[in-house]
Amino acid sequence: MATIVQITDLHVHRDADGTLLGVPTWDSLDVALALLEREVPDWDRLVLTGDLAQDEERATYEALAARLGERTGRTLMIPGNHDDPSLMREVFGAAFDPGGARFAQVVDGWLLIGLDSHVDGKVSGQVCADQARWAQRQLDAHPGLPCVLFVHHPPVAIGTAWLDAMGLDEPEPVHDLVGRNRDRVRAVVCGHVHQDTR
Q1: Using one digit for the tens of pLDDT, what is the confidence trace for 127-149?
Q2: Rounded to an integer, what distance in angstroms lies between the CA atom of residue 120 and that of residue 79?
């Protein structure tokens, strides 16, 4: 069985000493990567579910690629509201489907699908009907495989009012996709909210 690890909301900066709310984000990433290698050394894929770069600069994505090192080849990612999807594609092109800042990959009998919920200039996100149709085509191309769906913005309320106000706008395309494939979509994994919610 595949071992898939999610890390989300890195919020790293071009400046190696950059912080978010007083937290040195590069240090936090180093701790997470060390924990990954210590606790889950045989992982198959690392999925970064958005808000990778707090400052949306190419140099930040290049520094992240350098920090990931050889892990980059086994890393998938989607953008969050703080990201620049075009710069992510320039630096991490192999991590994305040719059609956008999203991915679909089969790993050890599981279909992993990552949706791009980034909307320029907005904190909340959106997954349009066209992208949901693309995801359905990925499911149709791999009949019978169980699926894990990744999206930065949660498509459901998490019960925290100020966070729910900036979640996924118009979540119906995602709800419909999951509803049509209820027997195959085993999990929807998100980021964005900076808290553990199940």
Answers
A1: 999 999 999 999 999 999 999 99
A2: 11
